[in-house]
Amino acid sequence: MAWWLRKAGIEGETRVQFRPVPPAMTEAASLRGHTLDVLGLGVRYGAFTALDNVGLSVRAGEVLALLGPSGCGKTTLLRTVAGFVRQTAGRVLIDGAGIDDLPPNRRRVGIVFQNYALFPHMTVAENVAYGLKARREAAPRIAARVAELLEMVQLGALRDRRPAQLSGGQQQRVALARALAIEPSILLLDEPFAALDRSLRLDMQIEIKRLQRQLGLTAILVTHDQDEAMSVADRIAVMRRGRIEQLGAPVEVYDQPATLFVAGFIGTTNRLPCTVDGMARLRLADGTPLPVPAGALPPGPALLTVRPEQLELRDEAGPGCFPVELGLALPLGGQTVREARLADGTPIRLTEPRLGAIRDLGARAFCGLAPGARPALFPRPTPEEE
Amino acid sequence: MARRRSASELSYGLVIGSLAALALVVLVGPILIVLATSFTDSRSIRFPPQGFSFRWYELLLDEVRSRQIHRAVGNTLHVAVVAAGLATLGGTAAALGISRVAGKAGRLADALFMSPLVLPGLAFGLAALMYFTLLGFRPSLELIIAGHLVVVTPFVLRTVGASLSQLDPALLDASRSLGAGPVHTFRRVTLPLIAPGIAAGAFLAFMASVDNVPVSLFLSSARTDMLPIRMWGMMESTLDVRVAAVSGTLILVAFLLMLVMERLTGLTRRMRG
């Protein structure tokens, strides 16, 4: 890129690739291999329970995403780990040692804040140097480290700018460099990509993931964006009402949702009302028997959650097939998303391969489970439980 | 249609324009008149001024013949500097405390600190005089400082409070997470970011003390003469043109200070907040 473009900061919102991490930093043992354990953590504000007996372990070098709707407790959990919120029950351990009694400034937990929280009265370099100065490191060491970090996030040319003169993506890179400067044992990312536009967000997700891998950082990512959690995290903890509903690898959480809430929150899902009969067989509301093992559930009303790609359309009736009336077809790249209705009016969505013949709107067809599909089955909740 | 809209636009412009003109006449007019009068060559305050001279300003600077005025100026500056200084310290501390106390207690403390702005100054001046006399104090500059402190602290509280409410709490969290303790955080983050609010508050407190009449009226004595009181006295007895010269000087000094503060802190922006 031309020097004058770089000088004007115009390269900011185009593709950014971080420099390879300097060898001195990858070898530094201080960043690598830290673990975080949260044991039976509870936080109450008066009658309101923000966190209820939360337990999780983040392995060394792992990114764990806390995913959930707003108010689910994920930010409270992050702030408790950082030391800004004092828990009413439970413990937080880093590398096996309790940090519950340490104030936030002695926990060595790096945070990238949602709005970046850069100090507006300091330059980029001063922001990055802040933590090192607070620790009273020697000036030459601070200077060398700041230069190294700014080089890594490709901001060396903007070191004397104020945060207000930077684009959103540049501000985020400063925030990241500033958090890494203190060699944190755990990196906390609080919705760090929420303020970036879509194309830049993907770039930054890839770059942060790459950096985290190279440095061997242990990180927690708070997000309400499931795609972000899926793409950046090694494991996902889905939270709701102060509790962890499910903790597992992204594929696991997607394919085998532990609860109805997880099934609905992650990805798109169809909810088909069914009944389990006395012989542990599953029948759709219209009576169609479905080839899904239902032995784990007691007889009674149930809900089958099926991903759109686990359903397929057929022209003829067959075992396990139920009639549907076809609705709109939305061609999305390689697949067509098709809306349809069951006989009782329940709306569903399914995906069709683009290569097949396009069926007409309003046509009747039959729908069945795709071969190998393993939909999840739950007892049907009462209206109060929902 | 177009005609009607242009008519309404015209009347709107007319109303706004005449209001602005009225404001100029009422607010700026007197200042111009007093300024013009201070350069008169005649022996009494009268408008329009007769001739042009600096003689009243020269007389004002005369150490012997304007000794009483000089002493009043000295007292006034002494009181204003000390009162504004103490108010800046106290008001800033109060604003910091109030910003940390959520809910009713914080609002109550804020209302208490702000109440001198609402309380009639004359009532407070009289009350302070009676109270201090009751306690057995004799009139002194320290008492005037104490009185002024009460009425100028709200200015500092207001401007610093406005700065603090604009301070992003995430910045303080960020500082803590980077390893800085509360003291380091206050010195390196909080203080630099609210400094313009503190400076604006100090300036407003200083100016409010300099031209405070009601409190000084009750608490000053012949020995502790204050400039506004002395000016009123001169005006009452002799129509002394030096009063106009003093006013002219005050206007000039206030204007220059205002320019400096605007440069440094964006004062007008802060007063709106």
From TrEMBL, chain B:
Q: According to the lineage, what is the superkingdom?
A: Bacteria
Alphabetically ordered keywords of this record:
Cell inner membrane, Cell membrane, Membrane, Transmembrane, Transmembrane helix, Transport
Q: Where in the cell is it found?
A: Cell inner membrane; Cell membrane
Q: Which InterPro entries match?
A: MetI-like, MetI-like_sf
Which PROSITE patterns does the UniProt record give?
ABC_TM1
- Look up and give the membrane topology term: Multi-pass membrane protein
Tell me which residues make up the ABC transmembrane type-1 domain.
73-261
Q: What is this protein called?
A: ABC transporter permease
| The organism of origin for this protein | Dankookia rubra
Its taxonomic placement starts with:
Bacteria, Pseudomonadati, Pseudomonadota, Alphaproteobacteria, Acetobacterales
